[in-house]
Amino acid sequence: MNYFRVQTIAVRLGAVALLVMGYHWYGWPGVAGALGALVMWILLHFTRMLQVLRRAANRPKGHVESSVMLHARLHPGVSLMQVVALTRSLGELRSDAGEQPEVFRWTDTGQSFVECEFQGGKLASWRLDRTAQALADAAP
């Protein structure tokens, strides 16, 4: 079972447990309070997603300031939304739409790029390619 499924199941069980505890301790007003807390939590995530996408909409697709710095800040299990927040740009889709794993690329001004592979929305692997920059630096 992958991490994404475990996390999804845990969130759902936590929400049900919160509703049950609210009913057990305070009755129907407790359920209403727990439901209000769950709706607030969902709205916070939705607002963050909109803020990240609004910032990314004003930037070129697949562009990052420094591919080396992006490569240094990545780690396994990060969501696509967190990577978009880091780069402030939507990645250039390199795989077929709807196909797993999803592969996105971010390129900097020196034509170096980071290619990220997402499995189920979570970062599985990534690689940095600096061949274009290395060739340009080696030229006399």
At CATH level 2, the architecture of the largest domain is: 2-Layer Sandwich
Mass-distribution shape: elongated
CATH C-level name of the largest domain: Alpha Beta
What's the oligomerization state? single chain
Supply the number of structural domains. 2
Biggest sheet character:
4 strands, antiparallel
Characteristics:
140 residues, alpha+beta, Beta-lactamase Inhibitory Protein, Chain:B, domain 1, 55% helix
Q: What's the layout of helices and strands?
A:
Elements: H1 3-26, H2 28-57, H3 67-73, H4 80-87, E1 92-93, E2 102-107, E3 113-119, E4 122-129, H5 131-138
Antiparallel strand pairs: 1-2, 2-3, 3-4
Helix pairs in contact: 1-2, 2-4
Describe the fold and architecture:
By secondary structure, the chain is an alpha+beta fold. It has two domains: 3-56; 60-138, Beta-lactamase Inhibitory Protein, Chain:B, domain 1, CATH 3.30.1450.10. Helices cover 55% and strands 16% of the residues. It contains five helices and four strands. A four-stranded antiparallel sheet has the order 1-2-3-4. Helix 2 crosses helix 4. The longest helix has 30 residues, at 28-57. The radius of gyration is 20 Å and the shape is elongated.
What's the short story on this structure?
The chain is of the alpha+beta class and 140 residues long. 55% of the residues lie in helices and 16% in strands.
